[in-house]
Amino acid sequence: MNVSSLAGLVGAALVGLGLYGLIVNPQPLRKILAFNLIGSGAFLVFGIVARRGAAAAFPFDPVPQAMVITGIVVAFAASALAVALILRLQEETGKVTLDPDVPSKPPVTGASNP
Amino acid sequence: MIETPPALAGTAGGSLLVLAILLPSAGILLSFVLGGRFAERVALGLTPIGLATAIAIAILVWRSRAPLVYNVAGLPPPLGIALRADGISCVMLVTAALVIAAAAFYARASFATPENVSEARAPLAFWILIQAVWAALTILFVGGDLFNLYVALELLTFAAVPLVCLAGKPETLVAALRYLLFALFGSVFYLLGAALLYGAYGTLDIVLLAERVRALPAVWLAAGLMTAGLLAKTALFPLHLWLPPAHANAPAAASAVLSGLVVKGSFFLTVRLWFYVLPALPGAAPEAILGALGSAAILFGSVLALRQPRLKLLIAYSTLAQIGYLFLIFPLASGVHPWIADGWSGGMMQTLSHAFAKAAMFMSAGLLAESLGHDRIAEFAGAGRVMPATFFALGLGGLSLMGLPPSGGFAAKWLLLRASAAAGQWPWAIVMLAGGLLGAGYVYRILAPALTDGAIVLKAPPQRSREAIALALAIVAVALGFAPQSFFDFLQIGRAAASALP
């Protein structure tokens, strides 16, 4: 087995693990970590694509690298947005859940935001 | 110097596409820098200019009967990134500009910065986010590169999710978080599919890919991953769970944009993928699956809409059903057959008429909720008499949803029915007819109690100007039913499959 296939298999495994976590774990924070795991798998696949130099003229294709960097920035921003939402939810209700029926104001502790 | 093949060269007037993207993007930055009540002025001031740009693009495409192309920095694909506007891009650009403008003027009453402060959080966020939605949609409609489109899809998500939770209440935060998680699943799967396509062909340009794609296992896998991701973002059954709470809990102006336009963004990309990138795949089976999921969405969404006690939830569930109709375009407009022109026209007409009808209905529902202080359908008795214009807009929007003539919804469903009859694909026709009946049922549920007698006390009468905006959108949805044949010819511009027909 050469390095490319090994990296490809690892990428596939990461995607599979992440997808499992995203579906099975009820906690939002774990779901976000699982999303990042799938993202890492996808970035690894991009890495192998770069190594294979699919755009025939290049010995080592730089375009997928540019895409991976963009992808990492987007995934980082997405995680930050999700964590911000979770923090706000924690502040408002005192617990973090995706159950649509639960939330209501907790017995007041701490200051509330204007 | 390498010669650029004619299919990839830029065309005259292509810089208008750049202007269409730059306008809302510059608006975002300007609103952010100036802050306070300037954000509102910038957003409102840009809407007529953006609309004029979209119309100018449409006129250029109409005259030349060919897509408008702009190569960024003069570099043609595969190295450069192309922007292209064909027939469907143009109508979506104009629709987006109209609905965004309507939503912005409608929202002035709810998102004005209060007199005694220089800046407030929710208004500033709203005016910046609505421009961000507009910018992202514009890139989605004219993008010619699958990775560029991925970035646009992400921008759209990041702009749409905070719109859901502007009110900051716990249930809106939960709805936004669920929406975000579904959307993230969708985008990462799309990205993985794009990586596989790049690995197979060394380009993500739509025109180049369409020439090179063959039915390889990697291409099938990429198509499956990207489609699954896009369906999660479009909320097609069974990946719809996030939509009703998100759309029903958002402020009315935001719901109008989310339901009318944002779900159409990822649907548009699904259409791009199957009709423009992958027409070389022998697609009967996947397209039948998409059609079957759409049919399930029509029945499931309509039945649930019938059972909702609250108006905004009812309208949100009806969005699920109406999204289902959109996906009938896949079995009815693919391949090379005599009926695909009808299928294509019907699917695109449904996209447009639903955008206008649903935006009008969410705006009317917002007016009702503000005037009555609630949106429980059972307590609407007498409301039709005190708010006639609002209920007229709801009724006209409903007309289009259930597909009664004359309306855009009728034209759409009639064309789709005709295509399914010509193709001998009867199951779609039966589902559409059942969906029409169920649609009539849930629209009747809104209007019937409102038209009965009852004493009702309004907290405040609705503003005439806001009623007029909702009514104008509903009238556009109805007027689409009178679209001439030349409009449907326009929708075919830039479609490869159409030119293969005799």
Distance between the termini of chain A: 59 Å
**Unreliable segments of 5+ consecutive residues of chain B:** 498-502
Q: What is the succession of H and E elements of chain A? A: HHH
CATH-defined topology of chain A: Helix Hairpins
State the name of the first-level CATH class of chain A.
Mainly Alpha
Q: What does the overall shape of chain B look like?
A: globular
Please provide a written account of the structure.
The complex is a heterodimer of chains A (114) and B (502). Chain A is an all-alpha fold and 114 residues long. Chain A has a single domain, classed as Orthogonal Bundle (Helix Hairpins). In chain A, 68% of the residues lie in helices and 0% in strands. Chain A is built from three helices and no strands. In chain A, helix 1 packs antiparallel against helix 2 and helix 2 runs antiparallel to helix 3. The longest helix of chain A has 31 residues, at 63-93. The radius of gyration of chain A is 19 Å and the shape is elongated. Chain B has a domain at 299-497. Chain B has helices at 15-34, 38-64, 87-107, 121-142, 146-164, 170-201, 206-212, 217-234, 243-249, 252-277, 284-306, 311-326, 329-333, 340-372, 383-386, 388-402, 408-423, 426-451, 464-479, 485-491, 496-499, and strands at residues 68-71, 82-85. In chain B, strands 1-2 form a two-stranded antiparallel sheet. In chain B, helix 12 runs antiparallel to helix 18 and helix 14 runs antiparallel to helix 17. The chains are: A mainly alpha (114), B mainly alpha (502). The interface between A and B is large, with 45 and 39 residues.
From the structure above, extract its key features.
heterodimer, A: 114 residues, mainly alpha, Helix Hairpins, 0% strand, disordered C terminus, B: 502 residues, two-stranded antiparallel ribbon, 21 helices, 2 strands, globular
Give the structure's gist in a few sentences.
The complex is a heterodimer of chains A (114) and B (502). By secondary structure, chain A is mainly α. Chain A has helices at residues 3-24, 28-52, 63-93.
